[in-house]
């Protein structure tokens, strides 16, 4: 698994995360999650939000090294946005809207046009086709 994140090769050289990983917010699952667990520091924490790489192929499910989890006392916890909606959503919207207006936060969007592009846009989410947030615009915006 070392080569997936290129964290440590057989010679013990670590190209990425030479000091190990303390916190990981997981959106993809699969091999990436396995590699992170392998390279996590003691008392590392993982918030599992999504598992994109696993949704359409059950064979890609992460197979975690539980001995690693035990000895490093790693905490893995599921994350669901509805839990945060009541207390944090409004504040989040205000803050991020301001960041977007001032340019402190920048987003990359991948826009396709027309209702007919919905199926390919959706399937593309699982193949890594989009660069940035995938959006389907139903009609051309008027200038
Ligand atoms: N828990 C919750 O409450 C909650 C709520 C909303 C969404 N989610 C989950 O959060 C995750 C991200 O959602 P999003 O809307 O941000 O999705 P997104 O904009 O489509 O981003 C998906 C990311 O996953 C990567 N990716 C796609 N296929 C991959 C694969 N096979 N292997 C590795 N990486 C892959 C893409 O990398 P590239 O850019 O390199 O292609 C992209 O960075 C999803 O898993 C979604 O289900 C969870």
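Sequence proposed for the structure above (143 residues):
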């Amino acid at each position: 698994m070392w080569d997936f994140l290129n964290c440590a090769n057989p010679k013990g050289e670590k190209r990425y995360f030479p000091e190990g990983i303390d916190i990981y917010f997981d959106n993809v699952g699969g091999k990436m999650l396995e590699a992170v667990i392998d390279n996590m520091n003691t008392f590392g924490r993982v918030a599992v939000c999504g598992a994109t790489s696993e949704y359409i192929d059950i064979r890609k499910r992460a197979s975690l090294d539980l001995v690693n989890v035990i000895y490093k006392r790693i905490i893995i916890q599921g994350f669901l946005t509805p839990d945060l909606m009541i207390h944090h959503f409004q504040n989040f919207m205000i803050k991020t809207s301001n960041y977007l207006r001032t340019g402190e936060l920048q987003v990359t969007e991948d826009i396709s046009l027309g209702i007919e592009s919905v199926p390919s846009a959706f399937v593309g989410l699982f193949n890594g086709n989009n660069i940035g947030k995938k959006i389907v615009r139903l009609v051309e915006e008027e200038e």
